[in-house]
Here is the input.
Amino acid sequence: MPDDRAAHLRVLRRRGHAVDAHLVSATARLTPALPAPADIDGIAVTTLATTRAPQAERQLYRLQGDTVADNPGFADRLPDFDTWRAEALGGEGFRAHWVLLAEHGRRIVAVTAVRATPDPHTGHVDHTAVERPWRGRGLARALKLHAARRLFDDGLRLLHTEVEAANAPMLAVNAALGYRPGPGHHRTVKTL
Ligand SMILES: CC(C)(COP(=O)(O)OP(=O)(O)OC[C@H]1O[C@@H](n2cnc3c(N)ncnc32)[C@H](O)[C@@H]1OP(=O)(O)O)[C@@H](O)C(=O)NCCC(=O)NCCS
Here is the structure.
């Protein structure tokens, strides 16, 4: 439900619904003036199309499992590997070379994944995740900048994403990269 309908939300709450996510959309224009990403000590940036990390897809599944609970509002459990793989690393908009990876040795420690959309100039940022020990060093920002430069070269001019309103680090990263907030929506659940 759109997040500007306070009266509707009050009614739903009275009827036993609870808000389990408040997602806010955001868009960023891609321009040739994108800054160069910072180098992060010990980190090599690759993509899912070029990585030599062993069992890269399994590593991404492990990374997703290790980080998902830190994304406020993510109430669902991670599905089994095959279901997750079909959703996260498949489907029409999936592009392996738009899944940017940060590798420390042979370990994948961060990811940002972008999908194609029906508009050839617009991409959708699916998810971004950084392993806990690597957080707060600018890795998400650097990886998203690597992605933005690659996407610009591939013809994209607009990136769209959705972020949980309480996810302060992701909002900070996106704001620094020029994302402008757009409409949001509440997801409500009722236990029967
Ligand atoms: C969100 C996430 C990817 C950020 O990764 P990161 O590598 O630590 O991010 P960076 O170091 O590039 O930047 C973090 C920014 O958030 C800021 N920040 C961190 N905690 C904050 C808080 N509580 N309030 C406000 N800002 C905060 C930092 O100051 C930093 O901004 P700065 O560089 O301007 O100082 C990481 O926390 C994560 O994996 N979270 C779990 C998964 C998730 O929520 N993914 C996003 C949904 S798809």
Notes: The chain has a mean pLDDT of 93. The first strand starts at residue 18 and ends at 29.
